[in-house]
Amino acid sequence: MLHVLIHMDAHAGRATSDTIAQMLSTNPVVVRRTMAGLRDEGYVQSEKGHGGGWVLARPLAAITLLDIHRALGSPSVFAIGASNDHAECLVEQAVNAELGEALREAEALLLARFGRVTLADLARSVNARPGGGA
Fold first, then answer.
1. pLDDT (tens digit, 9 = 90+) per residue, 14-47?
2. Where are the domains positioned within the chain?
């Protein structure tokens, strides 16, 4: 979604769910469902009908990575986690406790960083690269 929002800012006009779906190699229904969460939080707006589509409702400088993370339901930021295959095993309990603590600390650091990075920061980074521009 970060990719999509930065492209939306760089290109005038509305982006349809079909166009966004092609960009992400997914289904327009998935796009509409995901964008609805962003719309509900006030980051995008949508219009139906001919000429309709999605537009940003706020400038990129007013949207942080943390905002988007939360608008998308605060998904887990890590693909690893505790195992509960043998919940009664003392070794598994000890591993899960230590792993859980480490992951909570890492997630707190990562989310704090997300709160300091705006989409405008990302767009500037794109534009600063050779051949840059969204």
1. 999 999 999 999 999 999 999 999 999 999 999 8
2. 1-63+118-134, 76-116
